[in-house]
Design brief:
- The protein is globular, with a radius of gyration of 21 Å.
- 69% of the residues lie in helices and 1% in strands.
- By secondary structure, it is mostly helical.
- It is built from 10 helices and 2 strands.
- α1 packs antiparallel against α3, α3 crosses α7 and α5 runs parallel beside α8.
- β1 and β2 form a beta hairpin.
Length: 272
């Protein structure tokens, strides 16, 4: 009895914590689209860079971790999961995200995760390019489009990197490590190139008056991009590396994964 009460309390606390995490992601989204932050992004390069990192990395991480899918009725209360013998167990009345999760589970491979990583890298280069940032500074409405594009691409990527029921990562841990590293390095390389540049990248941002100098602004920008991307991706890299190395010590784990994958190839969400 006490064990059941403790389990229920833990479940409620976990749900509350996840709701707070998802709520924090939505709140950040709103804050970075409204003044004073939206005004700062048209004055300082580092504010523009922080806004990019929040849209591309931080908000997707918070949303996928908090998994607010049930708030809007996209998933049922019964999770799509695997039983102990490797069969896929789905809700009797699956909703939209449940059906998507079932379809994803039938095609567990690395290609989807790689494609999403390419999309993330491409968007990072696009939205941090000089012509695009200059356009964002001059036309405030473009920031709304940027936020939607980056949050959507980041969320799809993170769903393939961490657990977010009813979704499960489709790629194996080595691929998740590589994809996380490449995504993080993309942000780092962009920050490094800008910080080492002797000329300003973004001509729409003018470093005049009593504000930051161009050099100081570029250094702050690089530091912000390095820190925020590392804070998101490094825990995933080391966590997957640790779990992968441990699983290699247990040969039965790999056999179980192969059996489960074979059983789900012809199995579409019906209870065993």
């Amino acid at each position: 009895m006490n064990a059941e009460v403790s389990q229920d309390r833990f479940s409620r606390d976990e749900t509350r914590a996840r709701n707070l995490v998802a709520g924090a992601g939505l709140l950040l989204w709103l804050l970075f689209l409204t003044p004073p932050i939206s005004t700062w992004t048209r004055i300082y390069e580092y504010a523009q860079a922080v806004q990019y990192c929040v849209f591309a990395v931080i908000i997707p991480v918070l949303l996928v971790t908090g998994r607010p899918w049930r708030w809007v009725g996209l998933t049922s209360n019964v999770q799509v999961r695997f039983s102990g013998d490797g069969f896929l167990v789905s809700p009797t009345r699956p909703r939209l995200f449940d059906r998507i999760a079932i379809a994803r589970a039938k095609r567990n491979d690395h290609r989807r995760a790689v494609a999403l990583a390419i999309l993330f890298v491409g968007q990072s280069i696009l939205w941090r390019s000089a012509p695009m940032v200059d356009a964002l500074v001059r036309h405030a409405w473009l920031t709304d489009l940027e936020s939607i594009a980056l949050v959507a691409a980041g969320t799809f990527l993170w769903v393939d990197l961490i657990e977010s029921p009813p979704f499960r990562p489709g790629a194996t841990r080595p691929y998740r490590i590589g994809i996380s590293a490449v995504s993080m390095w993309t942000v780092w390389v962009l920050a490094y190139l800008m910080a080492m540049s002797g000329n300003p990248w973004y001509h729409a941002i003018h470093h005049v008056g009593g504000g930051l100098s161009q050099s100081a602004d570029q250094q702050f920008t690089a530091g912000a991009m390095w820190f925020l991307s590392a804070a998101a991706f490094l825990p995933i890299i080391f966590s997957n590396l640790n779990r992968w190395l441990k699983s290699e010590e247990d040969p039965d784990e790999e056999l179980y994964q192969l059996v489960r994958r074979d059983r789900t190839r012809g199995f579409f969400g019906t209870n065993p």
